[in-house]
Amino acid sequence: MIPDTVFSALSTVLEGRISRSKHDLEHHGRSETWFPLTLPDAVAYPQTTAEVSQMMKICHAHDIPVIGFGAGTSLEGQTLATEGGLVVDFSRMDRVLRINDADMDAVVQPGLTREALNLELRTTGLMFPVDPGANASLGGMAMTRASGTTAVRYGTMRDNVLGLEVVLADGTVIHTGTRARKSSAGYDLTALFVGSEGTLGLVTEMTLRLHGQPEAISAAVCSFAELGPAVEAVIATIQAGLPMARIEFLDTRSVEAVNLYSGSHFPLRPHLFVEFHGSEAAVAEQAALFGEIVRDFGGSDFDRATKAEDRSALWTMRHHAYWACLALRKGAKAVVTDICVPISRLAAAVEETAADIAASSIDGPILGHVGDGNFHAILLVDPEDAGEIAEAKRLAARMADRALAHGGTVTGEHGIGIGKKPLMEAEHGGGWAVMGQIKAALDPKNILNPGKLVR
Amino acid sequence: MIPDTVFSALSTVLEGRISRSKHDLEHHGRSETWFPLTLPDAVAYPQTTAEVSQMMKICHAHDIPVIGFGAGTSLEGQTLATEGGLVVDFSRMDRVLRINDADMDAVVQPGLTREALNLELRTTGLMFPVDPGANASLGGMAMTRASGTTAVRYGTMRDNVLGLEVVLADGTVIHTGTRARKSSAGYDLTALFVGSEGTLGLVTEMTLRLHGQPEAISAAVCSFAELGPAVEAVIATIQAGLPMARIEFLDTRSVEAVNLYSGSHFPLRPHLFVEFHGSEAAVAEQAALFGEIVRDFGGSDFDRATKAEDRSALWTMRHHAYWACLALRKGAKAVVTDICVPISRLAAAVEETAADIAASSIDGPILGHVGDGNFHAILLVDPEDAGEIAEAKRLAARMADRALAHGGTVTGEHGIGIGKKPLMEAEHGGGWAVMGQIKAALDPKNILNPGKLVR
């Protein structure tokens, strides 16, 4: 609960941009996945770093939990106010502050979405390539260490955030990183905050690394008779060092979902969706080499989509795949899994997972960013059926065990939130306690996104 | 001081591999740069993680400072026992534990040097490219977040350490990271420990990312009439997106030093030493494009050294440049600077620095990894002359101010140790206090490399 006097102090700082309306609370209490509606006590809409700092000072003095919110596209309940408190919606801090063409970096506010940034960059010859599918806010992407379809070529948020402005638990404002391409000046605070899910501070400004728009882009689709050879072809592609810009896997059930949802007519077989970036010559060479590998593994011929609209249609289908999977069953919600394994173990991990799902009562399409060794099973459940949720969670837990047994991680890109917290001990052992020590040192009152990520 | 009873308990754990001999203390009390001899109380030579853990428990119980030591090539006094205590020399933990060809990673012990690892990798088609010049230990490189000549292409230790085994202050052993290529499972502890200079834990095992040996390698040297156009050529090269494997700048005084030291006959003009990696065709294309840029800036034609022995001779000269500079003045030691700025500010930063040195009484060749915006002035001083040291430090402080004014960092790759500690507040402001909080949380007794990096 936020006492009325505190609410009114916050309202003064925010010049009235704070709400307790049912609509606002419900909008910020929802999750994209299976977590139940969880209402915060209030929602704030700051416009400046100074406001965020003042707001934090008040919440710190009164022990009010504070939860950052970007576009609300996280999948593990990261933005849910499970202990009540104030959700801070950054949608009004969504400006591009500076684009430094010559140094290929940009300074932005956290509420800016990745699509809005790329729109702004269109005429500069530069782009921000990290693409988790959803039009997430860049602040949210940094906080979950997001990645997505292009990480195989351009890296994750870990690699593409150069610096941050952060408001700490007590309202102190700090700056991490610089615009230089490297530094060895002490602890890498930027890397510590990226992926911290709002538990160590609220990001109010970010310096992002940009990349040159490729001279040529070509996308392609191919299919395989079986899941095994499709994944083996990915492994061979990565091991050959082919600089794929995207290499996405969809199993037969995912393809079926996409066809139903997007009106496409892909054959009901496991598919790879790929993209090549480079000079005209490089793209042609990459496509030819990839074609040879696909043939070696018995895959279909593929047509290259070099026209922008065809590529766009393809990636829109891929980006809607999550919604397509959900639409397979009316009223379903999803327990989403996100394991990532060393590339040599990818085929085993995918096949074991497919067999486990097949042997269960759960419908679970499998798809993912296989160039990184990262894939998802979208486990469809009736959100009212505790038995189904329990079974899906058991499948998810076995996937996590499998990831660790293969030398991988329980989450490649979705983060921990509340959904994956039970898996942290198994992945990190004593390292999880170290995370807790860092959390306690930086937020001794435990007001920053309490209940998430750490014990 | 280490009490005799504690020494003898440590000796039991280490089966006698602990020494207080003058030779051992002096060897571990020396610095590569201007810091005075600083003797530890004892030197330990552990062979296993279990020994390191047992040793830490004893030191923790008795408040004995513990300082990690690899090859002793750090430049900011990182390994000096400024508060006494035990130096832990990792030279007997120098094995390659596993090479995973298919996943392009290797698990190694921290005392292994980068050259020894690459020797081991020779026949695998893989390499570990991070190259700070000195044959440093990989543990030491991780702890200073080292980089060097190849970072422009392959990244720094930040990008090439996938995971760590760390012994904490109380002897607890934790594991960070996985063998997967990405993860969003909580705080990035690997990134926190990389660059922590032994102040948060002792690394006992590391998982490193490997890269494919390029099909073709070609090196080249070119010179310019003036410093300005040489640096402008670098900026144009980076902004053109040319994937240089190395691009090194040497000013006229550095070239003079190299000629005197290595018997070479480079013209006394500012030089660029470069290297291209890729397929035969790609290397030829890169060299041609680079040649055009060099001509645009009035540089000399260059001969490509495609033969391995010619390249090797070239990079040996570059790697010996620090010693070559020291040899310019008999008995001199160096105050080494290491600023790194956004590439668009590189020419200004180098020219301002050159002018500042020229106006001083100090001899200071300038050279560096300019593709990253990183360069060094080697400020030569008589180690007995406090006035000279003070003047060199004033020059270094002005370089640091300049780096920050240009949006850069006071140290691109050498780290903080004791030498750059006075610059931390200016670079990080409140962020330095956050580093101190993390240090206090993980090492409340302040026994891990006390006096370094944090306040």
What does this entry look like structurally?
The structure is a homodimer of 455-residue chains. Chain A has 455 residues and is an alpha+beta fold. Chain A folds into four domains: 88 residues, 2-Layer Sandwich (Uridine Diphospho-n-acetylenolpyruvylglucosamine Reductase, domain 2), CATH 3.30.43; 117 residues, Uridine Diphospho-n-acetylenolpyruvylglucosamine Reductase, domain 3, CATH 3.30.465; 108 residues, Alpha-Beta Plaits; 88 residues, Alpha-Beta Plaits. In chain A, strands 12, 13, 14, 15, 16, 17, 18 and 19 form an eight-stranded antiparallel beta sheet that branches. In chain A, strands 5-6-10-8-9 form a five-stranded antiparallel beta sheet. In chain A, a hairpin with a 5-residue loop joins strand 18 and strand 19. At the A-B interface, strand 9, helix 8, helix 16 and helix 17 of A face strand 9, helix 8, helix 16 and helix 17 of B.
List the helices and strands and how they pair.
2 copies of one chain form a homodimer.
Chain A: H1 4-13, E1 18-19, H2 22-27, E2 42-44, H3 49-61, E3 66-69, E4 86-89, E5 96-100, E6 105-108, H4 114-121, E7 126-127, H5 138-143, H6 151-154, H7 157-160, E8 161-167, E9 173-177, H8 189-193, E10 202-209, E11 211-212, E12 216-223, H9 227-239, E13 246-250, H10 252-262, E14 271-278, H11 280-296, E15 304-305, H12 308-319, H13 321-326, E16 333-336, E17 339-340, H14 346-358, E18 366-368, E19 374-381, H15 386-405, H16 424-428, H17 430-442
Parallel strand pairs in A: 2-4, 3-4
Antiparallel strand pairs in A: 1-2, 5-6, 6-10, 7-11, 8-9, 8-10, 12-14, 12-15, 13-14, 13-18, 16-19, 17-19, 18-19
